[in-house]
Design a protein that fits this description.
By secondary structure, the chain is an alpha/beta fold. The chain has 16 helices and 14 strands.
């Protein structure tokens, strides 16, 4: 179950879901039920069914009510998740989903938004709550960044109730980092033997470094300036990334001789403003990462762990981050990444040091690449997930 379309992935959360299900589909049959936003339904190229492989199939629910609710959530600070998913499905129950819940041996519910409907529709089916972050903390941080009163928001109260419901009624809870796991254990009393960490990762076999000498030519092929390039990998226009773009723009004004590429769907269409280039959504983000010299991730809000950081490291890029950006990871400042203070001069200094010292940039980029290959490769993580599910559900029922 996913509150957003997955195939192909368009952001951090959908990338996680896509790769984990792809690995599980090597041994199991995966049926994915997703709920697209209204703009997806209106698109000419919208496909109701997507067959990723013989054992990996996505069906997109075409309820106008659910799509409109998702669109409304996406446009506000709560974005991009459809927190009203269960309510919409109770109004108009999807017959196909009810049929799949009877067919399945196990249900993986991404995010807490759809969990209540699934649990009520299939009270005896083993269910896994796939947490992507501590939602109440993440949404509270987004609300504060957007100037919304945390104490008065009815949406935040709904988020808290939905997350608690999923935590209490799931047979198994999976988190993206040990920090989230500890929070759920200590704050909600979740038994330690039914909550595990399945980290985020990167496709390190398909995303890899290229020689520095080849980067200017690749930039030309992509329609980018041949000058030194800093890349910010964005997803959807959610609050943390929108705030990150502000940092990128301010930094770009201090470094007019450097190109700053905002890569991904945070901008509706491509643009160029002085030395800032927005690609819009691209079919394949890997060449843009490979063409860059530095990865910049000035993310100070949001929860979970940041796939954009892992992808930059997989491409061998020396990476500049904020301390909050690498929360929940084992990345170390000065070894795998450079952690900058949240000031424009500090970011400028970090960029200039990398550009002025290619040996240091290469050493940190190589160390970051090795870290991701060893600890955050999607194929390895998928096998770990399969082992956890098989061990937990493979014997007698745990319900």
């Amino acid at each position: 179950m996913s509150p957003v379309p997955i195939c192909p992935p368009g952001g951090g959360s959908s990338t996680r879901i896509y790769h984990l299900l792809r690995e599980l589909s090597r041994k199991h049959e995966i049926r994915l039920f997703s709920q697209p936003r209204l703009r997806y339904l209106r698109a000419r190229a919208f496909e109701r069914e997507v067959v990723e492989s013989a054992t990996y199939y996505e069906r997109r629910h075409t309820s106008l009510l659910a799509a409109a609710a998702s669109e409304w959530c996406h446009r506000g600070w709560i974005n991009p998740q459809a927190v009203l998913s269960s309510s919409c499905m109770r109004v108009r129950p999807p017959a196909l989903l009810d049929e799949w819940l009877r067919w399945a041996d196990l249900a993986l519910i991404e995010f807490p938004w759809q969990f209540a409907y699934c649990r009520r529709a299939a009270p005896t089916l083993p269910m896994v709550f796939m947490s992507h972050n501590v939602e109440v903390l993440t949404r509270s941080g987004n609300a504060q960044a957007a100037g919304v009163s945390v104490r008065r928001s009815p949406l935040l109260r709904l988020v808290r109730r939905q997350e608690e419901y999923a935590l209490v009624r799931a047979d198994l809870v999976l988190t993206v980092c040990d920090e989230d796991r500890r929070y759920f254990v200590e704050r909600h009393g979740i038994a330690e033997d039914r909550i595990f960490t399945i980290p985020n990762g990167s496709d390190t076999k398909r995303l890899f470094p290229i020689e520095a000498e080849a980067k200017p030519e690749l930039r030309s092929q992509l329609g980018l300036p041949r000058a030194s390039t800093v890349v910010f990998l964005s997803g959807t226009p959610k609050v943390p990334d929108l705030e990150g773009v502000k940092w990128v723009r301010r930094l770009a004004r201090r470094l007019p001789g450097v190109s700053f590429v905002i890569l991904g769907g945070i901008s509706a269409r491509p643009f160029r403003e002085d030395n800032v280039i927005g690609t819009g959504r691209v079919a394949d983000h890997r060449p843009y990462l490979q063409a860059a010299d530095i990865s910049l991730s000035p993310i100070e809000h949001g929860g979970g762990t940041k796939l954009k950081v892992f992808d930059g490291l997989a491409a061998g890029l020396p990476s500049i981050v904020f301390d909050e950006t690498i929360r929940g990871t084992e990345l170390r400042d000065g070894e795998h990444v450079v952690v900058a203070e949240k000031t424009e001069p500090a970011l400028e200094s970090a960029v200039r040091r990398f550009l002025g010292d290619p040996a240091r940039a290469s050493a940190i980029g190589s160390a970051g690449r090795r870290f991701v290959v060893e600890k955050h490769d999607w194929e390895d993580i998928g096998r770990t997930l399969d082992d956890v599910l098989s061990e937990f559900f493979g014997g007698a029922s745990r319900r």
